[in-house]
Design a protein that fits this description.
- The complex is a heterodimer of chains A (221) and B (214).
- Chain A has 221 residues and is mainly α.
- Chain A has a single domain, classed as MetI-like (MetI-like fold), CATH 1.10.3720.
- Chain A is 82% helix and 0% strand.
- Chain B has 214 residues and is an all-alpha fold.
- Chain B has a domain of 141 residues: MetI-like fold.
- The longest helix of chain B has 36 residues.
- Classes of the chains: A mainly alpha (221), B mainly alpha (214).
Chain lengths: 221, 214
């Protein structure tokens, strides 16, 4: 089922694919965290209009398939003169999509911080942005580290979609070797193992964090 | 815009939405049955049941769904010497993948049923399998409806991946529409995104209603 000779000949291509997968995921993750934090702050803002903007972003982005958004960037935008490279389209779409989920996660954390802290900080003369930046967000994000880890995992898995717009990630490398040799079972199995190498250790860390956080809350409560 | 907003084109795209929903319904139905079996195996006392189920669930969850789809469509037929239609391959791949996620939802639901209910049933002399079937699973299923609805929405979005293996669902048909004159992908994607949004948002809202009622 697995042709080891073929893998021995092509391991460089697969490993460079792994590097691209990591690169695109890392870029998208940075974007998703930055954008997600901003959107979460908007959704928790005391102003109705800002809330509506945040809500519209989250609801629209997470109810439309990532592949549609990716194709929108890659095939749609050039027709009105906006051009990105395939890699840029990949990490932009992936980052914007994941940001909606991260925003919801962080909002959960913000709501879990006691209202009194916000009121106390505002009463002592800090602006809303300062309260968020120095008082609420540090606690909120700490509280939701395990679910943020899950979103990161989803992002790594979703990064495989960039193979459809010819970004040469793991899956795309496996595709191209497969289409030349028709040994799809070999190349896809290799790709699966490479993905497992990325995701299983991350899943383990997330699990450990989840358990530790649970213990922490039990002790406090 | 009359090239896009005309009867035949819209009916063609709505037909794609129909295929999308059909795919998702088939996949969630199979994933639901498989998921319950996997969850029961994972909480079983026998290691021969527990370990394979755990490995399946954790392994499958850690893979990208697109990889599972192309694996079932391109790799499995060559290895086994059988041939799937794209639709069959899509349903198999999506149900096998979603089963691992549904299994975790079911397991969490079962573990959340209060221990006292199980003990009360045991004290009445009911057998373990009867307790699971008649008491624990019905309670657990009702509690996990919101999570299952969320899973269904996520599956509806993921059906778009089957456009890659040439299933003519909504995204696949969108590609056919903009590949014809006047070759304008942007309005087509905007319309398709709106269609996905309306369906997923409404189902999501129903799910939230369930959550507040439970």
């Amino acid at each position: 089922m697995v042709d080891w000779g073929l893998l021995a000949d092509n391991w460089r291509l697969l490993l460079s694919g792994l590097r691209v997968t990591i690169e695109v995921s890392a870029c998208a993750l940075l974007l998703a965290f930055a954008l997600g934090t901003i959107v979460a702050t908007l959704r928790a803002a005391p102003n109705r209009t800002l809330q509506a903007v945040g809500t519209a972003y989250v609801e629209f982005v997470r109810n439309v398939p990532l592949l549609v958004q990716l194709f929108f960037f890659y095939f749609g935008l050039p027709s009105i003169g906006i051009r990105f490279t395939a890699f840029e389209c990949g990490f932009l779409a992936l980052g914007i999509y994941t940001a909606a989920f991260i925003a919801e996660t962080i909002r959960g954390g913000i709501l879990a911080v006691h209202r009194g802290q916000m009121e106390a900080a505002l009463a002592s003369g800090m602006s809303y942005i300062m309260v968020m930046r120095f008082v609420i967000l540090p606690q909120a994000i700490r509280a939701v580290i395990p679910p943020l880890g899950n979103q990161t995992l989803n992002l790594i898995k979703n990064s495989s979609l960039v193979s459809t717009i010819a970004v040469s990630d793991v899956l795309h490398s496996a595709d191209s070797i497969g289409s030349q040799t028709f040994e799809y079972s070999t190349t896809y199995t290799a790709a699966a193992l490479l993905y497992l190498c990325l995701t299983l250790p991350s899943a383990y860390v997330v699990n450990r964090l989840e358990r530790r956080m649970k213990v922490a809350t039990v002790n406090v409560g | 815009m009359s090239w896009l907003f005309n009867g035949p084109t819209l009916i063609f795209l709505l037909g794609g939405l129909g295929v999308t929903v059909k795919l998702a319904l088939c996949a969630i139905a199979i994933a639901f049955v498989l998921g319950i079996l996997l969850a029961l195996a994972r909480i079983s006392k026998s290691p021969w049941m527990r370990w394979p189920a755990t490995i399946y669930i954790e392994g499958m969850r850690a893979l990208p769904m697109l990889l599972v789809i192309v694996y079932v469509y391109f790799a499995v037929p060559r290895t086994l010497g059988i041939k799937f239609s794209p639709f069959t391959a899509g349903v198999i791949a999506m149900s096998c993948f979603s089963a691992s996620l549904v299994a975790e939802i079911v397991r969490a639901g079962i573990l959340a049923v209060p221990r006292g209910i199980v003990e009360a049933a045991e004290s009445q002399g009911l057998r373990g399998s009867t307790i699971m079937q008649k008491i624990v699973l019905p309670i657990a299923l009702r509690n996990m409806m919101p999570a299952l609805v969320a899973q269904f929405v996520s599956l509806l979005k993921d059906t778009s991946l089957t456009a890659i293996i040439t299933i003519p669902e909504l995204l696949g048909r969108a590609q056919i529409v903009y590949a014809a004159p006047p070759f304008k992908p942007l309005p087509v994607f905007a319309l398709v995104a709106a269609m996905y949004f309306v369906v997923n948002y409404s189902i999501g809202k129903v799910g939230q209603r369930l959550e507040t009622r439970a």
